Amino acid sequence: MQITSMHFKARAGGKLADVKLQAALRKLQGNFVKGRAERMLELDNFEDIRSAAAAIRDRTLANLDAYLEEFEREATARGAVVHWAETTADVNRIVCELAAQYNVKKAVKSKSMVTEECALNDALETAGIEVVETDLGEYILQLAHEPPSHIIAPVIHKGREEIADLFELKHHLPRKTAAADLTREAREMLRTHFLSADMGISGANFIVAETGTTLIVTNEGNGRMVTTLPRVHVAITGIEKVVGTLEDVATLLRLLPRSATAQSVSNYVSLTTGTAQTGEGGPQHFHIILLDGGRTKLLGGDMQVMLRCIRCGACMNHCPVYQSVGGHAYGWVYPGPMGSILTPTYAGLENALDLPHASTLCNQCGVVCPVKIPLPDLMRKLREKQFERGLRPWLERLGLALWGWMARHPALYALASKIGVRVLGWMGGADGIIHNLPFGSGWSAGRDMPAPQGKTFREIYGERK
What mean pLDDT is reported for the chain? Predict the structure, then answer.
């Protein structure tokens, strides 16, 4: 997936004017926001579980090399083959080599954001291999040739009528509009692919060091079909997804579905350990690819805490910016607050200048994060790095430099404040509202600002004192 995060502002403006998108995004409030709050009330000790989950993630990150080596040792002992990929290009190369080794003609996939990072589908199709997405949302997007707009509900930006039109065009069947009928049609289309695929490709929500197990959490049966029916199974995930024990996974799973889809439990939690044994069904070959892809750059630095992320999507569901512009405006795999940190750190700060600023810093994302990532703090740190590296516009840097100089000279600062507040009071006019803020037209284009009273806080405080 090509990174277009540098166009965030322009894209966001278009998304705000998209009536269909705005109607679709309103579903977040009922489906995910309200539902999550209700599910969390089921836990008497929610904050304790949240703290325990954060501690689990920190423990593995502090000893990441040891846990990964233990995972490789245990997975290998059970018949799996573990591959290490430094870059996304390495992932694509390894998968294409495996496809050639096993004479793969068709691959079926369950939903995987890491493979979106790699643009794996394009690489396989270039190698002459048919690739079929089997998650319903991802399947719809594959037909539409669009990237996902949400990591949990990838097709949330589309309405039922759009999907009905798409199915009629691509499937050449009579148009259907009922959700059950559309789902049935997709199942019938996908069934032959499950049965004829040579390779199944999945991600992994977690990998367990003590048993060499990969684990996926899904709400559709496609995940199990992908990981059990083809003769070759390839699981691809980031190195940060490792946890120590199955008990650790159990703790994290108390939070993941509640945070992601407002469910107490997901429909399917599938654990895969090794290859099929004698007399068992399932893949004869199991390969696990562990991707760095920029993750080790975060270790030991200000951004390490971001590697706690369990990809639940709660931060974007509650973010007022994401709720207004959707996922495509962010320009890469990960949207919302998580994407505002991951994209600059993985793809380069210079390639995503607007994303650390795509936030009100209201901390809704930090409050709902199940592993207590201080997302607004991390965005502030990225803003500081941008300023230090001279990546912000010169006028903005000049303004901040002048403000900093004034702040170090209290008498001048007080005088400038007196003049400024009186000018703003005059601009408010008879109704006391500023409709066009100088140097802030982007902000006041969509909102009005109450004009100050014409006095500074110090003046008002002094009078009351």
Answer: 94
